[in-house]
Design brief:
52% of the residues are buried. A 9-stranded mixed sheet has the order 1-2-3-5-4-6-7-8-9, sandwiched between helices. The protein is built from 8 helices and 9 strands. The N and C termini lie close together (10 Å). The protein is globular, with a radius of gyration of 16 Å. By secondary structure, it is an alpha/beta fold. 31% of the residues lie in helices and 24% in strands.
C-alpha cells in the first residue's frame, strides 16, 4: 500500500534564521505575494515538514520536533502563528506558500506530515506538486464537512458563525481534492487517526483507499492523538518514514 509523508514546500526568498533554542532555529521566508511565513527547524537528516491544524501554530508539534534521523521543519501556515495574514485564504494558497518555503530552504523534496487542516493542505500540495513529496502522512484530514461526526460539524459551523475569519471559513470549505486526484498519488502514504477521532472512520478509510495508503487507527486516541499519545504516534510515523519506498 502507499504511504504519505508530510512535506511542505514553500520558497521564493528566505530571511536568515535565528537561533531560538539550543537545538532549534526559527526564521521566515517571503512568498511570491510578499507574505512572511514563519518556520522552526530542528535536528538533522531527512527533511520532514510539519503542518498544523486550524487555528494552531508550530507549537502543536513540540512532541514531534527533533525526531531522530530527521530535520523537522514546523511551519506556521498563513494567517496562523507568527506568519503574515491575508484577506483571502485557501488550501491552494497555503500549498503554494509551502512550495515557496521548500524552494527558499533549497529542498527539492521532503516528507510531509499534516494534521487536520494541515493534512488537507498536504493533500492539496501532493496533488499540485507531487514531484516535491517523498512520503506523505495524513493525520485526521477530511475532504468535506460531512466527513466529521455531527457534533464536530456543529462546532465548526458555530465557530465560523462567531468568528467569521479567513481561518474559520476554512472549516466549512470543501477541499479541492477528488477521488481521481488521490488515486494518482504515487508517493507512499500513511493515514493515521485516533480511535475516537472527530473525523468519521469511514471518511479516513476512504481517503486511505483512494490514495493506496496504509491505514492505522490508534486505540483510545482522539483527534489530537499525536499530543495525547506522542510516544505511540512518533513510533508509528518513524517506522513508516524509515521504510524503503
Amino acid at each position: 500500500m502507499k504511504k504519505i509523508v508530510l512535506i511542505l514546500i514553500v520558497g521564493v526568498s528566505m530571511v536568515a534564521g535565528v537561533v531560538s533554542a539550543d537545538t532549534q532555529k526559527s526564521g521566515y521566508i517571503t512568498t511570491r505575494d510578499g507574505t512572511q511565513i514563519h518556520y522552526v527547524r530542528s535536528g538533522s537528516g531527512t527533511p520532514l515538514i510539519l503542518l498544523h491544524g486550524n487555528g494552531q501554530s508550530t507549537n502543536y508539534f513540540k512532541a514531534q520536533m527533533g525526531l531522530t534521523g530527521f530535520e523537522t521543519i514546523a511551519v506556521d501556515s498563513r494567517n496562523h502563528g507568527k506568519s503574515g495574514n491575508s484577506k483571502k485564504l485557501t488550501f491552494e494558497i497555503m500549498a503554494r506558500d509551502l512550495l515557496d518555503l521548500l524552494d527558499a530552504l533549497h529542498l527539492k523534496k521532503a516528507d510531509i506530515l499534516g494534521f487536520s487542516d494541515g493534512a488537507n493542505q498536504a493533500m492539496v500540495f501532493a496533488k499540485n506538486y507531487p514531484e516535491r513529496v517523498d512520503k506523505l502522512i495524513l493525520n485526521a484530514g477530511n475532504l468535506t464537512l460531512s466527513d466529521l461526526h455531527f457534533s464536530a460539524q456543529l462546532t465548526s459551523v458555530l465557530q465560523n458563525f462567531v468568528s467569521y475569519t479567513p481561518v474559520s471559513r476554512l472549516l466549512l470549505k470543501k477541499v479541492d481534492v477528488s477521488k481521481h486526484d488521490l488515486e494518482k498519488f504515487k508517493m507512499p502514504v500513511l493515514v493515521v487517526v485516533g480511535e475516537n477521532d472527530m473525523i468519521k472512520r469511514s471518511a479516513s478509510k476512504r481517503i486511505a483507499k483512494y490514495s493506496h495508503a496504509e491505514f492505522i487507527e490508534i486505540p483510545g486516541g482522539t483527534h489530537k492523538v499525536s499530543q495525547q499519545q506522542p510516544k505511540v504516534f512518533n513510533r508509528i510515523i518513524t517506522e513508516f518514514l524509515n521504510q524503503s519506498s
